[in-house]
Structure formats: C-alpha cells, structure tokens
Write a structure and sequence with these properties.
Peptidase_S10; globular; 33% helix; two-stranded antiparallel ribbon; mainly alpha; 8 helices
C-alpha cells in the first residue's frame, strides 16, 4: 500500500516491475519499461489501491466512499486479504509481510495485528504472517514534524550552527516556538527547507500538484484534472504527469479490464 491517503498503488514509482520511459511528451501514450530494481524479482507483490475510491478501485454503493477512516481502511484491507487467500490457496504457505509507505505506514501495523489475532483464534484462511514493513511511515504529525530539524541537519540541509541554535533556543521542541529566539531560528529553517523538494531532497524543487490518486470516474466522486500543469523532464513529478495521461487513456483501461467510466 502507498500513502496519501488516496494515492494509487500503481507500479511505476517505487518497488513495482514497471517504470515510465522519461521522454518529452509528444501526445502519444507514455511508454513503459521494466524496472531493473523491482522487488518482484525476489518476491510476489500485491500492489493494493486502497482505501476504496483510490486508483481504479470503486464501491458499488455510494456509501462505500463515505465511511473511510484509518480503522475502516485497515478492516477493508483485511477483508480483501482473507478473500484473496481463499481464492489463491497455493500462496497461503508463503511468508507474508504487510507493507505500507508514508500514510499507509499507519495502517500496516494495525492490519498485521489483526491478522495475528485471527491466526491465534484459528480463523481461516491462515495467513503465514512474518511481519510488516513500513517506509517513511506517518506516525503522528507532532512526532513526525518535530524530527524534521534533526533530519535536515543529518542530511546537510542546515548548518551545524543553525542546528545548535535550534537545540539551544527551542530545547527539543521544533513545532510551536515559545519565545522569539526559537521562532527566529525556525523561520530561518523553514526558509531553507522551502528551497528543496522535501520528498526528493536530491532532486529539483518542482511542481507538486499532480493528482494521480483517483483514476476511475463515478458520478459519486470527482476525477482529478486529466491535464495537470506539466512539470519539466528533470522533475520527479514528471512521472506523475505521465501516469495521469496513461491511466486516463481509454486504451489503457480497456487493456486492464477497468470498469468503463460513466459519462
């Protein structure tokens, strides 16, 4: 699962077997290539669009889009896994890990805990759970945000002098300054961080408004703009731009067997 919430688990950006060919867009369907670093070389991966309404996923009942919170999200994934392993029993003996990045990192431990509880209760299908994997997981906004200053120092975004000033004046609390000196230090920190792409600190600071989360247009949900502002080729977000075009193309939907969009 990936983050957002409501970011699609599309295979093109992280661990999946495919990636986009990064070339100037010429009006044709963006081309795909194999990812030489795909986890699928050593594992079987289920890339799950969740919660419902993400990517090509949908609910037959409009109410299905409304009851979406962290807990219900986790329970929906648990229901999916039980049905999937029931339909694919030859995978039940495989070592199984729940994985989530960014916001989905909050749900991975919850899902793993519920699978573990079902194993203890003897419920079927029995999933061979070995653990969970989280990448850059969201835990809580205050907890996560408070570590941005130490992280920025650790990767060389801010100087030793600024970091020492933050420690001295803010006393380990970098979210809500309690005095003017701490506020001044944090203001300098924010100005420096604004010059980089916080998600890709070694890349170019580019447009981040590319929404590729919801591809399937029902009358109940609003499809993201199919023609977002085009970033430059050296931006990481250029991949999102290509994905938006690719995923919303009728030939892609037909090849994947995606439900036809309603007018």
């Amino acid at each position: 699962m990936t983050g957002g919430p409501f970011c699609s688990g599309m295979v093109f950006f992280e661990v999946g077997p495919m990636k986009f060919v990064l070339a100037p867009y010429n009006g044709s369907l963006p081309q795909l290539a194999y990812n030489p670093y795909s986890w699928s070389k050593t594992t079987s991966i289920i890339l799950l669009d969740s919660p419902v309404g993400t990517g090509f996923s949908y609910a037959r009942d409009v109410e299905g889009y409304h009851d979406i919170g962290d807990f219900s999200f986790s329970m929906h994934v648990l229901i999916f896994l039980n049905k999937w392993f029931t339909d694919h029993p030859h995978y039940q003996s495989n070592p199984f890990f729940v994985g989530g990045s960014s916001y989905a990192g909050k749900m991975s431990p919850i899902i793993a805990q519920h699978i573990s509880q079902e194993i203890e209760l003897g419920k079927q299908p029995k999933i061979n759970l070995k653990g969970y994997v989280v990448g850059n997981p969201v835990t809580g906004s205050d907890y996560d945000d408070n570590f941005r200053v130490p992280y920025a120092h650790g990767v060389g975004i801010i100087s030793d002098q600024l970091y020492e000033a933050a420690i001295r004046n803010c006393k380990g609390s970098y979210i809500r300054p309690t005095d003017k000196m701490c506020a001044r230090v944090l203001n300098t920190f924010q100005n420096l961080v604004s010059e980089i792409d916080v998600s890709q600190i070694l890349g170019v600071n580019c447009i981040r408004g590319m929404l590729t989360h919801r591809f399937l247009s029902e009358e109940y949900i609003q499809l993201s703009d199919p023609s977002p502002e085009q970033p430059t080729l050296d931006c990481f977000s250029y991949r999102y731009y290509l994905c938006n075009i690719w995923a919303n193309d009728d030939s892609t939907r037909e090849a994947l067997g995606v439900k036809r969009r309603r007018p």
